[in-house]
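*** Protein under study ***
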Amino acid sequence: MLCRKLALIGVGLLGGSLGLAARQRRLAGEVAGFVRREASRAECLKAGAVDVATLDLAVAARDADLVVLCTPIGQMRELSARLAPLLSRDAVVTDVGSVKAGVVAEVEPLLGAAGAFFVGSHPMAGAEKMGVAHARPDLFDGAVCVVTPSATARREAVSRVEALWQGVGARVLHLTPGRHDELVARSSHLPQVLATALVNHVLDEALPPEQVQLCAGGFRDSTRIASGSPEMWRDILLANRVPIAAALHEFLGKLEGVCTAIERGDAPAIAQWLEDGKRRRDGWINLRKNHPAE
């Protein structure tokens, strides 16, 4: 058993999946979940994601030796301030946020002043469907979870966070908070921006009504993630705005090159661009197939 009590602050897709996995694998003596609505409390219990669901943060945090913030990034500082005086001394706190530098800088001192230890983490798993109703215990199987300890993080706390993610089936990768934010800006945040931009462009109500009828499987597959939570993604885009803006400028420069090749009818350049894309994606798919935890 990893801990006596695991407290999930927010029980949606990620928090619910973490709770299901922890209970199924007996990682905690008790899993408690903090939620904001009575309806959410009932949903958590029905899904089996927690042993106890409560609208009282103090009840969720009481005697917890491992706590996971599973809320939108924009709520983490305020919740951490409320959480700090409620925590047991030496409690270890982590999170599932998609941006790390700002979260670590804000949350670690708040919790450290109360005698707790914060170590940031980000499981590279999820879906556009939100809520505990879509949670599943195998969500983290084979996924990479980035752990982002600060330079002053306590080794024992880092080990507890590593053990949590390894315990639910993830592979741990260590990065600094800043390096994490730079890399996910390209691989996670940029795709969200592009998918949403494509939807807003193609499905603009000002376009002819026939436009919608001509959107088929390719459009559906390339825009799936645009159905994600607007609140969550607003917070992410704001919190990681500098790396995301850099990734966008980098991408737009390359896209301008493709546009020029198409305008000029440059068949060799277009063919090479398409071949490079297919080769790189096929290689990535094969790597995931042969090494699913990579």
